[in-house]
Phosphate:Na+ symporter (Brevibacillus centrosporus), 316 residues
Amino acid sequence: MIVSILAPFTFGLSFFLFGMYAMRTGFQNLAGKKMEQWMGRFTRTPIHSFWMGLLSTFVLQSSSAVTVLTIGLTNAGIIRFSQTVGIILGTNLGTTVTTELIALKLESFAIPMLLIGVALWLMPRRNIRCTGLVVAGFGLIFLGIDTLKLMAAPLEQSETFRSLFLESSHSIGVGLLTGIIFTGLIHSGSATTVITMGLLSHNILSMETAIAIVLGANIGTCFTAIIASIGTNTASKQVAWCHTLFNVAGALAFLPILPQLSLVSAFLTSNPSMQIAHSQTIFNLVCSLVALPFTSQIASFIQWLIPDKRIPIKRS
């Protein structure tokens, strides 16, 4: 029983994470070198910063990667902390693009995409090879999803597992904590969401708990940024904690209305996986749009919360 659960979990998660890495590497080689220049130039206003955060997250396929890049640019003095709030709001919405694609259930294209990607990788031109990495990465992601599905059946038959989830299936607090911890351990909110989709499709989780796990995954992605900010300047620490506190505040604000969010998602689609994806999109879209007009106030609050401790030099 344990082997039938751990084997597909280990292989499926490995395929998924390696696919994310391959896709991110391909995108980075295609546009990543210009990303720092774009982020330095096109973050003059909160709206520009927001769109840059959204686009960067889609290209790099990781909100954590964009946040770490933002921390690096802030630490180097290329952009100011006040410019980063819009980027952070954009990254949260950018992560939903990957989730929506995953929810489309394109697993049947996994092997063809993997083969096409490998074929493109063997081509001599650099851009074609990088495109091949992106295509192969998508193929590995869908192969990982297909493999992760194999663990759902033994989990469903396990009395221990079922009793554990029966006790916590209606506890959104447990779901939130699960999402935070698991995402913090594997450094991938998308992987946490995929596993949650699989459990939900086999009725092992309730919709409210599944959504709570996904909200927890949003918070869990902040661990990488916090680690990256260690040893950096105050502005970089402000970026990391702004991202963290924003996600925590958003999750806490939505916890009381998870049943309503579940109903809205169910109205949009009857597919459980798509309901999870739509819930995450609605959550991030609402949080970002509500906060976007107040980016300067948010920046001021974070600067008050984490002040620059440098002693100003007195001029004679």
